[in-house]
Amino acid sequence: MANATMNCWPLIVIGGSSDRNQETMGAFQEFPQVEAGRLYNKLSVRPSSLEVIPAIIEKAVRTSMYGRPGSCYIDIPGDFVNLQVKKSSVKYVECCLPPPISMAECSAVSKAASIIGLSKQPLLIIGKGAAYSRAENNIRKLVDLCGLPFLPTPMAKGVVPDNHPNCVAAARSTALQHADVIILLGARLNWILHFGLPPRFRQDVKVIQIDICAEELGNNVRPAAILLGDINAVTKQLLEEFSKRPLKYPSNSEWWKRLREKIMTNEERSKGLALQKSLPMNYYTVFHHIRELIPKDCILVSEGANTMDIGRTMLPNYYPRQRLDAGTFGTMGVGLGFAIAAAMVAKDRTPEKRVICIEGDSAFGFSGMEVETICRYNLPILIIVVNNNGIYTGLDADAWKEMSKFGELATCVPPVSLLPNSHYEEIMSAFGGKGYFVKTPEELQNALKASLTDKQTPSLINVMIDPQSERKKQEFPWLTRSNL
Known about the structure:
Layout: H1 2-7, E1 11-17, H2 33-37, E2 43-45, H3 53-65, E3 71-77, H4 106-118, E4 122-126, H5 128-132, H6 136-146, E5 150-152, H7 172-178, E6 181-185, E7 206-211, E8 225-228, H8 231-244, H9 254-274, H10 283-293, E9 299-303, H11 306-314, E10 323-324, H12 335-349, E11 355-360, H13 361-367, H14 370-376, E12 382-387, E13 390-391, E14 393-394, H15 397-404, H16 409-412, H17 425-430, E15 434-438, H18 441-453, E16 459-464
Parallel strand pairs: 1-3, 2-3, 4-5, 4-6, 6-7, 7-8, 9-10, 9-11, 11-12, 12-16, 15-16
Antiparallel strand pairs: 13-14
Helix pairs in contact: 4-8, 6-8, 9-10, 10-11, 10-18
């Protein structure tokens, strides 16, 4: 529930609790669930009677979607389960209306357009709020009309395709650090965007903040302009404003030249790592082969440390709402659950669409037994475990053996190291799916082709990589401080 609320996703959780007549007596699993739920839900409530349950459900549905989306909790006491009432006494209500669409003040739109027009080094940052608002058509029009460079946050990838010429994801640090005007479209200046503060941003950067939640406006950085409203509606307002006073940021500007040079440099470095022939493979080699073979319209689920970070840069998204990852909370263990939910929706609506779940070995360990759920419902999910024997870095079998000579493994082995060469693919095989253990690019290619060809059976590819493989050198440490 907290994860949904922090990610601004509508969610309704219906939970059971102990019988009302056993409260304060030490009933089975008795706990103040409604009170606890208020910390991380938009609404946490227990119906006072069976008759009002429809009204409570309607309120929960409405509350979860209206304004900034989030989680709602409904508590059902155990004695309600077998309780009976006359049908005529039940208070039935109609489903709520669709969420109202709010628009920004015209003066704020005009002010924002003026600031953008005077910018020398603009940057558009697209957040997952834009994806939720289904604003992709208007945002793409804005990018094309004004010639603005854009940077998607992780789950906003695909709102404008990653292969669009104005995408500057490969020059992320340079774009953030040197932009003089930043337009935030449904993105928050939280840890994912380094709070909008120096040294990752200019001290004098002007922020134009567009958000559906008034309380979010001004967090960490005082905005130069605030546009409160639905992302899609406000983007349309900006388009209308720029139709009155056309703006086309020059593609031959010094700013674009600087960004393109950085993009080319970073892409060449990644390409060099991706094409390395040495064994064990590195992250970039693995993602290179994955990118070459997976469908462009697949739903990508990703979690892990380096696995998620490098995968975000190496695996492009071409369509909106096709990527799920650890999100605002950075929570590990959500990947397989997300993949199961995505596969259930795809099975019903777009059965030809594949769900591909790319996990670090540590992340897979949090919820790996959900493979049984995947096989139980015969969901053709492809799981790829990028296995480096640890979190960030691990030990190979020889180093592990040498480490064991120093004494008890529990005290000698680094806590971020996992058992070398663990055969995670055998978990899939044990439940009736197909498992592959691969060490070379050729084995990886063959396993990918076989898994993607079989559209009926779940599969897991366990990809062994160099335990010391890491990201290419970054200009800034993570969150301006060191990793583990």
